[in-house]
Amino acid sequence: MPVQVIMPQLGESVVEGTVMQWLKAEGSAVERFEPLLAVNTDKVDTEIPSPAAGTLLRILVPEGETVRAGTVLAWIGQPGEAIGEEKPALSPAREGTTSKEKRKLGFISPVVARLAREHQVDLREVRGTGEGGRITKKDVLSYIEERNRAAPATPTAPWETPADGDLFRPVELPVTAAESSPQPARGRLIRLDPLRKAIAENLAASMRNAPHVTTMMEADMTRATAHRAAHRELFARDGVRLTFTAYFVSAIVTALKAYPVVNSSWTEEGILVHSQINIGMAVSLGDQGLIVPVIKNADGLSLLGLARTINDLAERTRLRRLQPDEVHGGTFTLTNHGTSGSLFATPVINQPQCGILGVGAIKKRVVVIEDMIAVRPMVYLSLTFDHRVVDGFTADGFLAKVVEALESW
């Protein structure tokens, strides 16, 4: 019988999505879990896998249209099958041996679908530990490990391998919706894609809603630089590229613990001090804009754990393989404008947070230390904060703590 393709709810706070591209045309054959369409939700593009094998009988929602989670997007079935009466949103289980449990799988994320295809995993045999029994990547990996315990280890899938590269290095992406069209009288019009629109709306709203103030200090990176040089090879043995970003995130965590009010949000009822420390990190996509994935519970990670998480999130951001929940829930943000040589900047607060730390380029400069002239690697740090929440005295104390943490490695 025909199967519905449903717009999934890709995160707890994600209630709608925009159909960016159909990867299959009506009448095309599709395999189960094969990428079927690309959906954009809050700056994140996600490939939605096919819930069943068959033929794409009809597309109901065209490209560019935004619909709520639960909307029927298309139908998949066999050629000639009638479409009309409502069908369950979930596809029926495949036929197999009678000993297998014929259960409905629910929404399967692209990462889970790829893992299942790569390792030939029947997802009906995997116990889901996610919300509502949803099968997570961790569930599939645990199943594969258990299944192959007595066999040679299966190579890690390419998309799960942390890649090299600095966190904020721009990448070149193919032009899609942001195609330019000639305007003879007034120049060239660059049409706005959903990502650029979302960035513009968020930044404009932030400047309207919060009184922005920026304070700046500089930090001597001598000890952090020496520590990184001494540990880069050791981290590389674990497949992790150690960049300065991990040091800046670690310093932010230390400062947020000392000044919890900076890890908060303004509400009409009062100042909400967050119980978790979730650090957002701005990742540049070149001319396409930027996305801010979030390091959840950053205070529970070692320097190695931070570096590994940063590698993973940055790489998947550039490959457009983030999950929508991975750009939500941030309580403070780091942006590294120094990769392009910038020394100073006044970043815009990423609402509803109350602070963002800008990091300039690390440059060797002549400084005076204990009445002696020395050449040290120095960096300017700028803290932009919501003056409704944080006063100058607290902001300066927080930034001084960041400097102290960087200089104490």
Describe this structure in a few short sentences.
This protein is of the alpha+beta class. It has helices at residues 110-119, 137-147, 194-209, 222-237, 244-258, 303-318, 392-407; strands at 3-6, 16-22, 29-30, 35-41, 44-49, 54-59, 66-68, 72-77, 180-183, 187-190, 212-220, 264-266, 271-273, 279-281, 283-284, 290-291, 294-295, 332-336, 355-359, 363-369, 372-386.
What labels describe this entry?
Dihydrolipoamide acetyltransferase component of pyruvate dehydrogenase complex, 24% helix, alpha+beta, four-stranded antiparallel sheet, single chain, seven-stranded mixed sheet, Chloramphenicol Acetyltransferase, 409 residues, OB fold (Dihydrolipoamide Acetyltransferase, E2P), acetyltransferase activity, 2 domains
Structural summary, described in words:
Its EC number is 2.3.1.-. One of its GO terms (molecular function) is lipoic acid binding. InterPro entries: 2-oxoA_DH_lipoyl-BS, 2-oxoacid_DH_actylTfrase, 2-oxoacid_DH_E2_comp, Biotin_lipoyl, CAT-like_dom_sf, E3-bd_dom_sf, PSBD, Single_hybrid_motif. The protein is an alpha+beta fold and 409 residues long. The protein has two domains: 3-159, Beta Barrel (OB fold (Dihydrolipoamide Acetyltransferase, E2P)); 194-407, Chloramphenicol acetyltransferase-like domain (Chloramphenicol Acetyltransferase). It contains seven helices and 21 strands. It has helices spanning 110-119, 137-147, 194-209, 222-237, 244-258, 303-318, 392-407; strands at 3-6, 16-22, 29-30, 35-41, 44-49, 54-59, 66-68, 72-77, 180-183, 187-190, 212-220, 264-266, 271-273, 279-281, 283-284, 290-291, 294-295, 332-336, 355-359, 363-369, 372-386. The strands form six sheets. Strands 11, 14, 17, 18, 19, 20 and 21 form a seven-stranded mixed beta sheet that branches. The protein has a four-stranded antiparallel beta sheet with strand order 1-8-6-3, with no helix packed on it. Strand 4 (35-41) and strand 5 (44-49) form a beta hairpin. Helix 1 packs parallel to helix 2 (137-147) and helix 5 crosses helix 7. The radius of gyration is 24 Å and the shape is globular. The N and C termini lie far apart (63 Å).
